[in-house]
């Protein structure tokens, strides 16, 4: 395929060509395979990878494919295809090396994917160098194209620096013309790292001494065909073997007495202890450090004793038991027939005898080797030479010692009941695997082996349907002893001694579960005999112990209750008209879930994905309660962010006009007047700020239901908002939020502390619960559905992150501010001063983010441009051509002003919304946009991230990063929600190599928090620790 610049522009358009050319020149193109017929490549932009495939059929026309979601609908190739075509054009012009591999000094000698340089023949010769008697080190000499390198250290330094080096008068290494085969390159870089870490430069120039640490890495990568080891005049291949060493050890009868150990071949071994290897007869063997050390010392002993090592008669037993097994790790051990014929080689049979006499547990222990019986207390040596299994003997004796037996000449005894119980239940099972046990009936009956199955029966109270009843049931124990067993169980004793003398173990799983239940319930175990009743909404903590436990017997009434919690559809409630025909099936399930929790007096969190209709499900619930609301004269209270109060009023009028809903807002006089008539309303709608202002009035009223919209508003329990909403009195309490957890699981506790206080105890106790315990507890009381799970054929949301390089004038400014911030911040990066200076540090980080957006946000007189700003209007231009309708979000209102000014200059009309926009005006602006009046909407990220329905948009641009990724997702879901008919493209803009990229990376690390806890939400980055700030400022 022949590529020209003119052809690329024709296929991709001027804009995509320029972007592709920029990608190519920024080394963002990686060619995976290339031929005249086809090409596979990747274009790496920030953290995103785009796969590009080009093929040339027989007709010669190039066919292209790219994995990116193309923004424009016009028939042109994308910027990633343009980047790859540009790369191929330069390849065809021989500008190959800078394209197919990013510049990296460490890889300068490495063989590339499309290599045209000469691959050098590189060989290594390793020398054994004697530093002292029996002290050897390994040196290495390099050969390049059969030429010996006289100055190896200098060559390695030049390879590291990608610099030429003259090896001989006829050959000079040049990284532009030469490279190394992969395995050779790896060894060279291990040697480079080695000399970089040297404390001094005393290494010889001709033969580098390889450190033991470097050797252990190098030997794994040795290419045998290009490697030699030289031992004196002997050259051999560096075979690294792991089989038994070719050494032999011979034990003989001494003359005239004792024994001798002969080591005929040990002098051939060169032991390199620190290198953990041995060289014998031209072969190199791996050996662990301890065996190397033993072999070296054994060699020294042999040298001193010359012909053999003497062994005394009384040392032979120890030698056979301890030394011979170690020698077998070093070579072949031969024992003279004269010795073996006099040895007894029989397996150990240990026998343990147990009896109970006068409240004592007696024990006898013997070691049997064929017909020879040895006592552990025997001091006299046996008459015959026995190869004893000392390892097994020692294990058995250690267990007997652990049991605290008292030793006597006749054996052992125990006279402590607790120690006896521990021995019989814990240690004896271990001994059963090592010994033959002979126990009398008195011992066998000492531990109770009858049926013992303690249980707590759980049922619904017949008189009071919202109460649970717990009673204790113990099978297998006489009725007159059940009370005493319960007392022992409460006292956490390990066993209970029955009246017949048997010890009843209380260390079963069922007992542990009952003990945990009693601690949680804070009831006297004896009360369980008569039965304990607890209100359901106060007993939920106890249910953690019940499910899946054999210690609890669940009666049918209680099992039915649990099934109802897990499957709210088991209790059916009629949905009022006309909502019955409007609600989708999953919304009907949500309505049923709210009604079920209300029936039992529970609170809950409706945590459906953004855009799934939490509002209409709540309105359905209110409509179904309307008769009760009016009869008891207890309105529903809805608390929401100020920006969406009128959206609630609008939705109530739209879906349930029968409901009399009133917004309590405005100045104090107006609110006071509305409060005086509150009893006439069905629904009171107000905001979190006004709840704080009018807290005294609200805490005196009693509502039928309170619904907290965007409940993450009180995720911090220490805020005034959390304290105010906690005091609101209502029979039913629900929280609505698409993000039940944003940063830590304590936020989940804070929300439940308001809507369902009895679900958990205090924050301290909650923080000690395992993730599994929290998940089990909250599962019935959080309803979470995702769009892809409940909506058939719902339009996709395609998310893409686009990175741009700062402009030179931006980069200069950014670098200066970063240096200043580093200097000012580093002195505060310790635990004592970090918290006090967090606001100051955050302000500095915000300045860096503003420079990435546009320096004009705070730098007076800045006349330069902004790379991201320029890129935004490239997208805007393409969006207009493709007929896209676009939401542009930024957290900086001044940035929105700059964008709006540029749109105006380009004759592009738009809507604008920020925190100053009145609540009722927000609703009108959304309606006008959705009706198609204008194609662009500029929105402040925090002000417009919630409560807006903008399904008229099909493209969302997140101009700058927010600390909390959940806020970004909420913004994107203003368009990606029910009513959307088109695929929604979400484009996130980043500046590469800046704080924006690092914030994005930190966000990804924290997203797993909630997935691990609840499997329904994503984490957040709203706070920094010291290490994270250091990472941001790198």
Automatic annotation (TrEMBL):
This is Helicase SNF. One of its GO terms (molecular function) is hydrolase activity. Gene3D superfamilies: P-loop containing nucleotide triphosphate hydrolases, Tandem AAA-ATPase domain. Residues 868-1030 form the Helicase C-terminal domain. Residues 595-758 form the Helicase ATP-binding domain. Residues 50-89 form the SWIM-type domain. Keywords: ATP-binding, Coiled coil, Helicase, Hydrolase, Metal-binding, Nucleotide-binding, Zinc, Zinc-finger. Residues 992-1019 form a coiled coil. It comes from Bacillus weihaiensis. InterPro entries: Helicase_ATP-bd (IPR014001), Helicase_C-like (IPR001650), Helicase_SWF/SNF/SWI_bac (IPR013663), P-loop_NTPase (IPR027417), SNF2-like_sf (IPR038718), SNF2/RAD54-like_C (IPR049730), SNF2_N (IPR000330), Znf_SWIM (IPR007527).
């Amino acid at each position: 395929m022949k590529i020209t610049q003119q052809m690329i522009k024709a296929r991709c358009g001027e804009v995509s060509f320029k972007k592709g050319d920029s990608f190519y020149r920024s080394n963002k193109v990686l060619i995976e395979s290339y031929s005249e017929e086809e090409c596979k490549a990747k274009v790496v932009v920030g953290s995103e990878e785009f796969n590009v495939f080009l093929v040339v059929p027989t007709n010669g026309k190039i066919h292209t494919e790219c994995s990116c979601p193309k923004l424009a609908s016009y028939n042109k190739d994308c910027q990633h295809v343009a980047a790859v075509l540009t790369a191929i054009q330069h390849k065809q012009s021989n500008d190959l090396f800078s394209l197919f591999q990013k510049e990296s000094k460490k890889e300068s000698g490495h063989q590339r994917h499309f290599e045209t340089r000469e691959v050098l023949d590189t060989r290594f010769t390793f020398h054994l160098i004697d530093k002292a008697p029996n002290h050897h080190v390994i040196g290495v000499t390099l050969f390049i194209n059969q030429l010996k390198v006289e100055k190896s250290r200098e060559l390695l330094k030049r390879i590291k620096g990608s610099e030429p080096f003259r090896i001989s008068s006829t050959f000079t290494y040049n990284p532009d013309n030469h490279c190394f085969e992969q395995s050779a390159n790896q060894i060279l870089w291990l040697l480079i790292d080695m000399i970089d870490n040297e404390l001094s430069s005393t290494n010889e120039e001709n033969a580098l001494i390889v450190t033991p640490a470097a050797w252990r890495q190098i030997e794994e990568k040795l290419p045998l065909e290009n490697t030699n080891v030289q031992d004196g005049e002997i050259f051999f291949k560096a075979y690294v073997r792991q089989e038994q060493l070719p050494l032999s050890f011979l034990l003989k009868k001494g003359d005239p007495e004792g024994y001798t150990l002969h080591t005929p071949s040990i002098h051939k071994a060169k032991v390199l202890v620190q290198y953990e290897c041995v060289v014998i007869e031209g072969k190199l063997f791996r050996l662990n450090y301890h065996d190397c050390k033993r072999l070296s010392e054994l060699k020294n002993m042999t040298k001193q004793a010359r012909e053999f090592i003497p062994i005394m008669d009384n040392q032979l037993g120890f030698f056979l038991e301890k030394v011979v097994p170690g020698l077998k790790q070093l070579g072949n051990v031969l024992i003279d027939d004269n010795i073996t014929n006099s040895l007894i080689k029989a397996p150990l049979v240990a026998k343990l005898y147990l009896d109970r006499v006068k409240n004592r547990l007696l024990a006898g222990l013997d070691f049997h080797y064929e017909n020879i019986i040895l006592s552990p207390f025997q001091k006299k040596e046996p008459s015959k030479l026995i190869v004893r299994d000392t390892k097994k003997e020692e294990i058995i004796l250690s267990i007997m010692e652990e049991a605290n037996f008292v030793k006597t000449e006749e054996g052992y005894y125990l006279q402590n009941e607790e120690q006896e119980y521990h021995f019989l239940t814990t240690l004896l099972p271990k001994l059963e695997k090592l010994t033959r046990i002979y126990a009398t009936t008195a011992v066998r009956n000492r531990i109770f082996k009858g049926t013992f199955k303690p249980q707590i029966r759980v049922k619904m109270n017949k008189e009071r349907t919202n109460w649970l009843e717990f009673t204790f049931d113990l099978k297998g124990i006489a009725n007159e002893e059940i009370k005493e067993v319960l007392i022992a169980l409460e006292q956490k004793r390990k066993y209970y001694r029955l009246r017949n003398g048997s010890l009843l173990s209380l260390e079963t799983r069922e007992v542990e579960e009952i003990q945990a239940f009693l601690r949680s319930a804070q009831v006297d175990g004896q009360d369980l005999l008569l039965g304990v009743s607890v209100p359901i909404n106060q007993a939920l903590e106890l249910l953690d112990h019940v499910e899946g436990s054999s210690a609890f017997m669940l009666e049918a009434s209680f099992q039915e209750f649990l099934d109802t919690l897990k499957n709210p559809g088991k209790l059916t409630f009629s949905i009022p008209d006309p909502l019955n025909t409007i609600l989708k099936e999953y919304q009907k399930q949500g309505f049923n879930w709210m009604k079920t929790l209300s029936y039992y007096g529970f609170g809950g969190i409706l945590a459906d994905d953004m855009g799934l209709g939490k509002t209409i499900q709540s309105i359905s619930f209110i409509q179904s309660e309307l008769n009760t609301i009016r009869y008891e004269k207890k309105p529903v209270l809805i608390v929401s962010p100020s920006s969406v109060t009128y959206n609630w009023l609008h939705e109530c009028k739209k879906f349930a006009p029968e409901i009399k809903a009133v917004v309590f807002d405005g100045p104090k006089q107006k609110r006071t007047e509305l409060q005086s008539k509150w009893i006439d309303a069905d629904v009171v709608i107000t905001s979190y700020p006004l709840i704080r202002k009018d807290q005294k009035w609200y805490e005196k009223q009693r509502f039928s239901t309170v619904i907290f919209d965007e409940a993450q508003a009180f995720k911090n329990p220490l805020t005034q908002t959390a304290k105010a909403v906690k005091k609101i009195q209502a029979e039913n309490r629900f929280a609505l939020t698409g993000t039940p957890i944003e940063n830590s699981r304590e936020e989940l506790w804070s929300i439940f502390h308001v809507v369902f206080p009895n679900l958990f105890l205090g924050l301290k106790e909650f923080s000690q619960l395992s993730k599994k315990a929290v998940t089990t507890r909250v599962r019935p009381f959080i309803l979470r559905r995702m769009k892809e799970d409940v909506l058939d054929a719902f339009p996709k949301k395609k998310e893409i992150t686009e990175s741009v390089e700062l402009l030179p004038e931006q980069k200069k400014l950014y670098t200066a501010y970063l240096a200043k911030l580093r200097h000012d911040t580093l002195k505060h990066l310790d635990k004592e001063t970090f918290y006090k200076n967090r606001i100051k540090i955050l302000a500095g980080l915000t300045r860096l983010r503003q420079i990435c957006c546009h320096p004009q946000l705070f730098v007076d007189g800045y006349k330069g441009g902004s790379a991201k700003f320029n890129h935004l209007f490239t997208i805007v231009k393409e969006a207009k051509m493709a007929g896209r309708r676009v939401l542009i979000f930024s957290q900086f209102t001044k940035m929105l002003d700059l964008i709006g000014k540029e749109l105006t200059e380009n004759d592009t009309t738009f809507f604008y919304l920020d925190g100053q926009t009145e609540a009722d005006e927000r609703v009108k602006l959304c309606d006008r946009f959705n009706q198609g009046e204008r194609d662009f909407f500029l929105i402040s990220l925090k002000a417009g991230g919630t409560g807006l329905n903008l399904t008229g948009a099909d493209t969302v641009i997140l101009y700058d990063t927010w600390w909390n990724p959940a806020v970004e997702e909420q913004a994107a879901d203003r368009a990606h929600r029910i009513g959307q008919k088109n695929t929604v493209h979400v484009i996130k803009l980043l500046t590469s190599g800046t704080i924006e990229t690092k914030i994005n990376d930190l966000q990804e690390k924290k997203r797993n928090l909630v997935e691990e806890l609840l499997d329904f939400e994503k984490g957040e980055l709203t706070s920094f620790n010291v290490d994270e700030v250091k990472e941001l400022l790198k």
